[in-house]
Amino acid sequence: MTRSGSGKPLPLFRLGPMDGVDSLSVFHAAAELGIECVIITSPATTFVSSGYFDNARSVLDLNAIAAGNIPVFRRRIGGGVVLLDANQVFYQVVLLRDNPMAPRVVKEAYLKFSRAPIRAFAQIGAPVEYRPINDLVVAESGRKISGQGAGVVGDCFIFVGNILIDFDYQLMADIIRLSDKKRESFVRLLENNVSSLARELERSPPKSDVEDILAKEFMAEFNTLVQTPPPEKLLERARKLSVYMTSEEFVFEESERQHNSIKVREGVYFQRD
């Protein structure tokens, strides 16, 4: 295990665009290997990510997903179904559970690790607020512009989130199993409650600028954070996990969870039935 804490350097891995699902499997790989780090990356291609407890067959429109040749990746932490693509930047914090920097209470984790992204949004020109428990919303409109999650994988505490540079409302609605009438209503609800930098700024800032600002703010938050190349074993493990975590065996594992509603943002849900 690679332990950071007590003043020891914490690696910052800036991985740039990764091959689709590798951009999520990489933090699972870090947790499995016990590599403490902060990761900034993005997917080069579009994919769907389901939460660990989701019933993928129940909630997803598998015909639409197959027609679009969109992979489905099942996370090992909870949360709902999300659409991920090249118009997003991910931040991922991996800490051993006994590290003093790892909060013991979930709410404290969100408060602590949301600070760097909140400052980054302000630097970019789109001020946001933390909306308990896991959203960042545009300060003026209350629309969600970042979804976050936390959990435990192996011996590690995980905190992850994204910055929406742009968002495809229609495609998000298309991947969910809905009637045509319900799908139209879902698109409208998404438009009213989810935003992006492109929408707020009326332009899409370069992804590299967003990543630079985010890295700077995380380095301000963790004074031991040092940008470093990722170890090859991390990337190799991520690629192997990508194969398993998109396999039918794992994605469609039996789940008794019922998906009567879809969470759009904190306090806003769409009833499927």
From TrEMBL:
Keywords: Ligase. SUPFAM superfamilies: Class II aaRS and biotin synthetases (SSF55681). Signal peptide: none annotated. The keyword Protein biosynthesis does not apply. It holds the Pfam family LplA-B_cat. GO terms for molecular function: ligase activity. The keyword Lyase does not apply. Residues 32-226 form the BPL/LPL catalytic domain. This is Lipoate-protein ligase A. The lineage of its organism: unclassified sequences, metagenomes, ecological metagenomes.
